[in-house]
Amino acid sequence: MNEMIASRSFRDEAIPESVEAIHVLLDELWADAPFVPDMDRMTFATAVIEAASNIVQHALPEFPTPVELGVEISVRTQSLRAEISAFGATDPQLDTDAKGMPGPEAESGRGLALIHALVTSFTFSREDSTNTWVLSRDSTPC
Question: What is the average per-residue pLDDT within 128-138?
């Protein structure tokens, strides 16, 4: 069974300070789950921060109100999972199946390729005006 051990959540305006708050959130989460291997912590945290940073940098509001960033992170006995959402955002029209790094002339797409490389699974969905990325990484306790 993949039982939940610890979790954290965050929701606020999608601004650079929100990314810093997610760093703190991750540090608090690891304190509650010291058994998670360092390599899993580092790679998963990098993927989560990359996804959150992409929202802060690139999400466009669908309404006159600012885009909000939401993060739900959980540590389970055999995996790490995060839902990163952009509330009130337009459809980013992403090619989430593209896993390789784009060519040197490409102006974007490296963040998604990095996320794919760091996690076990990565999905994207859109419902109403919310874009949600779900990241998971298999992890075996030390």
Answer: 95
Amino acid at residue number 35:
F
Tens of pLDDT, residues 67-77: 999 999 999 98
Would you say residue 93 has pLDDT above 60? yes
Rg over CA atoms, the chain: 15
CA 56 to chain centre: 12
CATH superfamily, domain at 4-138: Histidine kinase-like ATPase, C-terminal domain (3.30.565.10)
Q: What is the largest CA-CA distance in the chain?
A: 48
Q: Is the dihedral of CA 32, 37, 79, 59 positive or negative?
A: positive
DSSP string, 71-130: EEEEEESSEEEEEEEEETB------TT--SPPPTT-SS-HHHHHHHHHSSEEEEEEETTE
| Residues 97/88, Cβ–Cβ less than 8 Å | no
Domain ranges of the chain: 4-138
Report how far apart, in Å, the C-alpha atoms of 129 and of each of 24, 59, 67, 111 are. 27, 11, 10, 22
